[in-house]
Design goal:
This protein is an alpha+beta fold. It is 20% helix and 30% strand. Helix 2 packs antiparallel against helix 3, helix 5 runs antiparallel to helix 6 and helix 9 packs across helix 10. The chain is globular, with a radius of gyration of 31 Å.
Length: 661
Amino acid sequence: MSILHPFSEGLAQKRQKKDKNVIENPHDYKLQELFLFPNVNKIRYYYDKSELNKLNKLDKAKDSDALYPLLWDYVSKFGVDNFRRDTYWLWRLANITEEQGRFYDAQRLYKLVLKHHHAGVDFQKVQSKYYKMAGRKPEDYVPLDYYYDLVEFREKLDTLRPPQGIDLNMGFYVNSNKSDYGPSISWDNSTIIFTSQRNSIRRNFDPVPNEDLFIIKSLGDGYWDEALPLKELNTEANEGSPYLSKDGTTIYFSRCNTPETFGNCDLFVAQLQADSTWGEVKNLGRNVNSTAWDSHPSLSPTEDTLYFASDRIGGFGMSDLYYTHKDRNGNWLPAKNMGPVINTRGSEVSPFVHPKHNVLYFSSSGQLINFGEFDIYKAYLEENNRWGESSNIGPLVNGKGSEFYFTIDQESENLYYAKSIENNMENLDLYSFPLPMGAQPLATTKLTGTLTDSLSNSPFTDGIVSIIDMEEGIAIAPKYLREDGSYQFELIDNRQYLMVIQGDEFFRIEKIFTLQGDTNFDDQTRPISSRMQFESVVFDNNSFELKSAMYYDLDKIGNFLLDNPDFKLKISGHTDTKGNPQANIQLSQKRADAIKDYIEYFGGISKDRIEAIGYGAQQPLVEEKTESDRELNRRVEFEIYRPNNKGWNRNKVEEDDGIRW
């Protein structure tokens, strides 16, 4: 059995009798009370024929008011098997909770349904409902390739830059031509111990990869010395998934298929000896290990709780996360399943608890927001000492392949993890990445907002929201505006940020702010139309000199062209009929050219994207009878358009719809 590939189907589970020591009634229908699920680590399946008959009768009669308290009580008693065998009742509870207007509670219940469904519910409908209620889905994130292409056009400006993080392969001194994974970094960031398959042994006359532990030392500035084997711990069996204690004197790891193991792979512990070698290797015992696969150990910040992954019988999916506590004598108590909020019908592996904060990171193939095969997620410890809902740490780390087996330094500066290419887990490499905002343990303060049309008050739905950390430079993945024009980010409080909202339907919004608690911005901006005028762009009589009052609106046009490189601009200068017609044409041309020069120079726009034409008094808006009429005709018009790739006919576009998109 390999440390790397634990995923096997669980065995059929048996029904067990009702446990007497369960919570009979939740208090005021609080979701935290329901989500305790005390039977998960006591019985496999909760079944009460009398209670089920009542539920079925009330459900058939559609008596939701009478059904709700009984159903809440029944679901609170669920064992592990109920989540896959009785998913309908979980869905029905979510449905009635939604009917009662408790949308946040319903959202979390629907999420539970989606993570454990097997039969009895329409998955696509529930998923669509959940995404709508939660206001988030994988498609909210801007694809990074597209985002990097877009920001290349803004290299001359300081306001908007691509994420600063670089996904860095740790190099040939660390990685080999075989799989390398499972890193654990020391408290002082000077040492990493990891797993590698670079060595091989002969079994049945054929060489096969052997999982061993290796150690690397930091050379500073992100460089690492050559990887060396931990000879005193490596055997002909498979060793891997190490975890170092804070003081560096204890190492937890997995060892597979030896006479000392109870199952395929077990968790072991070793102590650092006086001569700087590792010894006193011990199996953690039957309270922790099972007759199945047990691996991926990680300690809590206080080091009195051990988290690990196992595919033992009785879990929710192909592999689950478990935990065990130390008693007063330092012995590990019987391990418990981490429950249905963290675990899913898929696989959960690689638990890691931040060395300073009660934040759990883990890899999963069964969560809802997923960019590839296995993604990294994080969850926070709640007041009831249970782990809350998990969230994907975002596409700056998670890609189309698999990301798992990771560690974070105590300063939350870098993430070290194993990464595969898409659909191939045969050759993992170790990577480092500056910890992005989505993975930061302190990124819990919500920034929300909306963007609407200042003319119609309708939401803009096609736009990109970018947030830039101006103090620490932590990379933040950009997101699209949602269907209702809203957006949401989780950021670190008391930091200064720059927010930019850009799109091809509106003028860009840009603001600098200091985040102080949960914050909401409701912004409006002007839509882009085929022909526009700005009140600020008014020249003095017989002058083509730009005034400072014009700069704000001209910058908006320049920024739009930078954000949307496939658009072009036509500037049309107009005068009133007073004076010499030829002189008016020359004056209007100089005004249009002055604006063109400003946008080209200060906006960094190439000349071939801007056209400037002076029409003089040839295209009046109104017949001039008063001075007000002459003021209306003295104007500069801006036309922003996207040329037709098959050949653009300006007159035809104007005749068809008047808008050049």
